[in-house]
Every structure is written in structure tokens, then in C-alpha cells.
Amino acid sequence: MSQNHHGSALPPSFLPQKFQILSGSALKLIAIFVMLIDHSACILLSQYPPALTPLFCIGQNAYTPYRICRDIGRIAFPIFCFLLLEGFSHTRNRKNYGRNLLLFALISELPWNYMFADTWHYKKQNVFFTLFLGYLAFCALEHFRENRTRLFLTLSGLLAVSFFLQADYGWRGFIFLLIMYLLRDDKAPQAIIGSCWLAYEWKACFAFLPINMYNGQRGFIRGKLSKYFFYVFYPLHITVLVILRRLLF
């Protein structure tokens, strides 16, 4: 059994060890790359008529460049959820970890609103809020491990918040994060049950391939500057794309 960069054993993957070639850094790059494809389609291709012209059809479904890019982007969320769980498990300061999630949820809200509504107000919230609620759920699962009543009440409260907050992926995303946490020690059931839960967004299920190619190593991205780049990238790339939309369309 392989080990992560902290020396602890990795949960068994459903892939042979020779395929476990992706570090945490590689997973981060994959996630932000497919997210960039997704958001570029959402913000730019949606305004470009040729990108809305079908390239081919499968059954009753017409596939345009816009739709293909949006479908590719579906794999980003499960990878970010996995990376959240890895970060939570290995961070030296969980308080700062949660603070950063909440801080960038607030920072990202204005660019997010302009992405969808082209104004400062939009009824739904960005994905950092979903990840922050997942972080709080992970804390509750550890802190109230011996008190099932408090655990149930806390998780129910967080689920209600995720429902009314209408953050990206909503309550379904929150429950997916719980699935990822509860099955963190066994990758095959995690992938199977996680994929069943994501059936409504089935393209996201392909994320379990790179997740199970994870080798437990931190990789080439080290230091605070590199770490914060991945927080900053989310609001920054949305802002740049929104500006491009204003200039081009």
C-alpha cells in the first residue's frame, strides 16, 4: 500500500498502483483547468452564436461546443471536494483553513454575481460557500463523534443552510461532501456511491478516475504563495472573463 506525504497509508484505489501517478498539485491543476473551460463557456461561448451550433447529435441530444465545454467542467467539483478533504485531513491549522474558505467565498461573491447576472446581486452563491459548509460538516463529524444527537442536529442545520443559501451545487453538493468524508478510507465504495449520488450530473462521475490516480504526494506546488494562488484563481479568472465579455460582446 502506498503512502501519502505525511507517511500514513493511502486508502486503496480501485486502480492498480502503476496508474496512481497524480500528485495533489496535478489534481489541483486539472481541477482549475477544467473549471476554466467550464466558466469560459458559461461567460464567453454562451454569447458566441457559432459555439451554440450543434456539432453532432446522440439520440435526442445535440452537442454544441458550448455544451461540450460545460460537460467537461462537471468533473471539477468532485476533485475540489476531494482536495478539500485532503486539505482538512492534513492541514496544521484547521481554523486558518476554514477562515480562508470563508474569506474567499466572500471575495468571490461579486465576480460570481456578475458572471451570471451581470450585476452585483444574484440569488445563488458561489461554490466556496458549499466547500465552507463541507468544512464545517467535517469539523462536526470529528468534534461530535461520540454525541450522535449533537452531530445529527449540527449536520441537519448545515444541510438547511445549504438549501436556503443556494450555493453552487446546493444541498446535493453538501451531501456529496459528506459521502466523500464518510467513505474516505475506501475509494471503491466512495466512487460507486458518489457516482450514484451525482447521477443527475453524470459527467461529474468521471472525476473519480483522476481522484483514484492520486498518489498521496504533495507535488511541485509548495509554499504559501503557491497555496494562495489556488484560492485567488477562482475570483480572478471569473473577473477577467467577465471583463472580456464586456469588451467582446
UniProtKB/TrEMBL annotation:
Pfam families linked: TraX
Superkingdom as given in the UniProt entry: Bacteria
Segments traversing the membrane: 26-48, 97-115, 127-144, 151-171, 191-216, 228-248
The entry's keywords: Membrane, Transmembrane, Transmembrane helix
Protein name per the record: TraX protein
Organism whose genome encodes this protein: Blautia caecimuris
